[in-house]
Amino acid sequence: MYSIEQTGDGKYILGGYSISNISGDKTENCNGNWDYWLVKLTDKYNLITGKTFLDLNSNSTQDIGEPSIPIKKITEASTNRFAFTDQNGFYSVSVLDTGNFSVSPAPVNYYTPVPVSHSATFAGINQTDSLNDFAFQPLGAFNDLCVTLTPLSAFRPGFDASYVINYENVGTTILSPTITLYQNNLLSYVSSSVNPTTTSTDSVQWSGLPVLNPFQSGSILVTLNVSAVAVIDSNIYSQCVIEPLANDYNVYCNYSGVISVITGSYDPNDILVNEDTLTTTQLATQPFLDYTIRFQNTGNDTAFTVKIINPIDTNKLELSSIEFVNSSHPFQLKWVNYNRNMEFLFENILLPDSNINEPQSHGFVTYRIKPKTTLLAGDSVTNKAYIYFDFNAPVETNTATTHIVLPTSISDLGIEISDLKIFPNPANDELNIQINNTRINGVITISIFDILGNIVRKETSVNPHSQIRNLKSFSPGIYFVEVKTGKEICRAKFVKD
User: What is the pTM of this model?
Assistant: First the structure.
């Protein structure tokens, strides 16, 4: 920026020489090498404020023990302006005009907001309409435990590496969890922040964990040693399971598997995506892309503040679908609309440097967002982040890429069709799925699509010889089976008679 001139009516003329914006895109529509903007700064706006909380006894009051709901999106209907609640459940949505407005929260599974929306009317400017609270009341008794496994550091031959296990009760009942980590055979257990009840060469289990009330969560930091014989650029797959599985309403989130690449030297600040390839058939159902941004303080002093700037390509990603998954530390989330950035702010994080406390010098945040259905085969969804430690220059991460391909291209990326057998075909009430491939281990995701590409059944299993029952409800016709574990994918079709 080279010059700022005030026009005298509250407006400014800004002039400067621009190379690129923070997302790396070239500035367009500029006059030669100079850009000029006419900007009017204003502090004139109205605020709609309130809080969100779980109303477990459905009395529309937040009683002692009823938790607030952090990082929940609140949207104003007519302007589509939105904000996220803070760690205490409070939100503040700004609107820039007078008139009638309405705010509503993003949904929470198994709960209904009371009220569904709040109305606010402003006759002037610089007014605040407060106490627009949303009490999320349970719709019934639903058991639902969820777990996510996140690699917190790089995996290097002969060195220690770490996972963090985040677990949560997202249902409406009180549950007692048991967690089992099934680590790759190249990993050996070293230690964890919560003492396990049993360990073996291929698993670590924590039973007798404290009971979880609705929306209570916990985390376990696990350190393992990577075998010195691990081959650089090879993959390591580990998975985590949370129980009980019986009567769990959504068993799919009781499993979490992750693939890590064996590396040599590495940059500890990076971004990961759970899908490096999506077919156009998958795209039609808008599966979530899960992004994990990892950071580490490799300086020589404590970091007091960490800020992550994450530009979102709204031409390829559905902004309205953003959901927070988990993080290593509390943070505030803000959407910066003018440059389409997500801003994650970890204030007072007190992140030690890696020389003083290596295991605690790491942090991460995970969120999910859906790709747009308008993407075509050959397109790519890219994402990168910029990490600020206190007042230092930003650290630019790698670029996480998801390629969009035709279903016929998947054989180039997955296992051989001969490795997958389904029978009987045609099928009536049951379908047997058998995978004959030694590379397959861990959680298997089985999806059944109809001829239009809609998912009609989705299940998970740890057994390569699985059985799908109760197909009598399927209409007669052709269906497609997709079997996936880690990066291994294959498809086959069957006829329902």
Answer: 0.72
